[in-house]
Write a structure and sequence with these properties.
heterodimer; A: 11 helices; 0% strand; elongated; B: 330 residues; 13 helices; globular
């Protein structure tokens, strides 16, 4: 492991702890407004200052970690699960099944650029945390499916798979016991980068007003509330702290993903 | 030659298939609206008459697809065949006439709204790409040439930070620095030529980071090729070797990424346009479409953005095959 991925792991660990212990770490009620204390700069009482309605930004950033990590974990686990199944089926059975799945279905899902499909889904379904998670899973699974398909295609030609088949093992057993464990390493890399993507997507959709509705302390919502000119002028810290939180989380997962990839693939290791 | 034409035809056939599926999915998206779309648009205060009128006007009273499973009086669902008289075939018929329906709110043709806003988005995407290339090539070359050194590591970290910083953080920060504090540029709008600088930089930041990484690895790979040794042995200066020989070959994969990123930029423009009030497709989608529940506008924008993306990808693929003969053979 390189130094950057260790930094990444430390940052992620801190955020996970903050999310788990949020009620004990937060210094104020996340919803409590105090109109006399609008736009207060960072101080001993309000470490990150207050926003346009006098809410404590530190406490909101702390609780925001919960939303971000919750969405990230659920999206990654669900998309990796379904992606693995579809990818394994496509790669293992090959033939027209593969041509239909990887040739057609994968490409249709990849035909929507970036977040557009998620934006479209939430626009029609209506905003909300569960709908947001659903939409992110819909756009997320294809990446895992493609990856697992490629791995299965490679691994299924190995001798130990033929040996298992010769011994009479069924398709399900060969797939779960012999092939998938060998395809898991790149999946971990993808999951780490996927966490970065999911955290970013949640914040983006919430920023657009399509995610967790305010007053929930989602980092994306906080940035959206902090970016009008009067707030920017009076309280740039209302933008900086949630922005830093998003950037640090995404950066940390990217560090871990990149580090793991280099670690698992010695050809990519730098001198 | 025959195989080449066949390959191109196959790619184009596939393009048609994917576009058909995407359009079909988008036309059916309105079925996802919970409850009644007419109610969602007009609100609870609307009378039954107004609702019925609205539905009739936008075809919402007609079956959505060739068949359906409507429930009868007892609440049981039965299969029913509607034939060609449905909204899905109407949508297709209209598309071939360049008609994307009318806006639920303003009654204006959606096609007109889109063509009005499209140029602004394309302008922004191209400006963002230009900025990204101007930043990425020198940084990538410096990092690649000094591989493994302190400079390289620092540039790699900067690139990762650039990828991790979302546009909705960079954008407002730039507004704070250049509009609020320094007062050099306008915080939003599209009135003056200088208004494009901040949005283009915001949209291009992530791309410049991705490209820097690509140029770096491309330069490293090419520097290991034998022709570099020949060029150096000829006594060419390191500058000429890198900028004339290495960069020329190393830019082929970068061109591909640029093509593929055009679509990503179009989608990313949704957020950038919202930050800067840039009157493009993204702002149309978010402010006129989603915020006002104007579903026909949302459908039109999603269609316009995704078909542009698909076509840009196909063209990039064909261009790449033409640029790099090694791929043509395989």
């Amino acid at each position: 492991m390189n130094r950057l991925s260790i930094i990444g792991i430390i940052i992620v660990a801190v955020f996970v702890l903050v999310a788990l212990l949020a009620p004990f770490i937060a210094t104020h009620d996340v919803g409590a407004t105090d109109l006399l204390l609008r736009y207060a700069p960072p101080s001993a009482a309000h470490w990150f200052g207050t926003d346009s309605t006098g809410r404590d930004i530190f406490s909101r950033v702390v609780f925001g970690a919960r939303i971000s990590l919750e969405v990230g974990i659920v999206v990654v686990v669900v998309s990796a699960f379904f992606g693995t199944i579809v990818g394994a089926v496509a790669g293992y059975y090959g033939g027209w099944v593969d041509r239909f799945l990887s040739g057609y279905i994968f490409n249709v899902f990849l035909a929507f650029p970036g977040l557009l499909l998620a934006i479209a889904l939430v626009a029609f379904l209506g905003a909300g945390l569960n709908k947001l998670i659903f939409a992110l899973c819909i756009i997320g699974w294809v990446g895992y499916a493609r990856l697992i398909r490629a791995q299965v295609l490679k691994v299924r030609e190995y001798d130990f798979v033929s040996a298992a088949r010769a011994l009479g093992a069924g398709d399900l057993r060969i797939l779960t016991v012999h092939i998938l464990p060998n395809a898991i390493q790149p999946l971990i890399v993808q999951a780490s980068l996927g966490m970065a993507g999911a955290v970013l997507s949640e914040a983006s959709l919430s920023f657009l007003g399509l995610g967790v509705p305010p007053p929930a302390p989602s980092w994306g919502v906080m940035i959206e509330e902090a970016r009008d000119l009067s707030t920017l002028q009076a309280a740039p810290h209302a933008l900086i702290f949630p922005g830093l939180a998003i950037a640090l989380t995404v950066l940390a997962f990217n560090f871990i993903g990149d580090g793991l990839r280099e670690y698992l693939d010695p050809r990519q290791r730098r001198r | 030659m025959k195989r080449k034409i066949f390959g191109v035809l196959r790619r184009l056939g596939f393009l048609v298939l994917v576009v058909w599926t995407v359009v079909s999915l988008v036309t059916l998206l309105i079925e996802l609206v919970p409850g009644d779309p007419a109610m969602a648009v007009l609100g609870d205060q609307a009378t039954a008459e107004q609702l019925a009128q609205f539905r009739a006007k936008h075809g919402l009273d007609r079956p959505p697809f060739f068949f359906g499973l409507p429930s009868d009086e007892q609440g049981r669902r039965h299969f029913r065949w509607y034939g060609l008289d449905n909204r899905y075939s109407d949508y297709w018929r209209a598309i071939f006439h360049g008609d994307l329906g009318t806006s639920f709110r303003t009654e204006r043709p959606v096609f007109e709204l889109i063509t009005e806003r499209y140029p602004a988005t394309i302008e922004l995407a191209i400006a963002a790409m230009f900025i990204a290339v101007c930043i990425a090539i020198p940084l990538g070359v410096v990092a690649g040439k000094n591989r493994g050194t302190w400079t390289d590591n620092a540039l790699s970290v900067i690139a990762l930070v650039g990828i991790s910083l979302p546009s909705f953080v960079i954008g407002p920060m730039l507004v704070y620095i250049f509009a609020v504090k320094l007062g050099w540029l306008a915080p939003s709008g599209r009135f003056d030529w200088s208004d494009i600088i901040l949005p283009a930089f915001t949209l291009g930041a992530a791309l410049s980071a991705i490209l820097t990484r690509m140029v770096r690895s491309s330069v490293i790979e090419e520097l290991g090729e034998p022709y570099v040794r020949t060029a150096r042995a000829k006594g060419l200066s390191e500058r000429t070797v890198v900028y004339k020989h290495v960069l020329k070959n190393g830019l082929i994969p970068v061109v591909t990424v640029l093509g593929l990123q055009l679509g990503v930029l179009l989608a990313g423009a949704i957020i950038t346009e919202k930050i800067f009030g840039w009157p493009g497709l993204g702002l149309l989608l978010v402010e006129d479409g989603i915020a006002k529940r104007d579903y026909s506008v949302v459908q039109g924008c999603v269609l316009a953005i995704s078909t542009t993306y698909i076509i840009a990808n196909t063209l990039t693929d064909l261009l790449y095959r033409w640029l790099d003969p090694r791929i043509r053979v395989s």
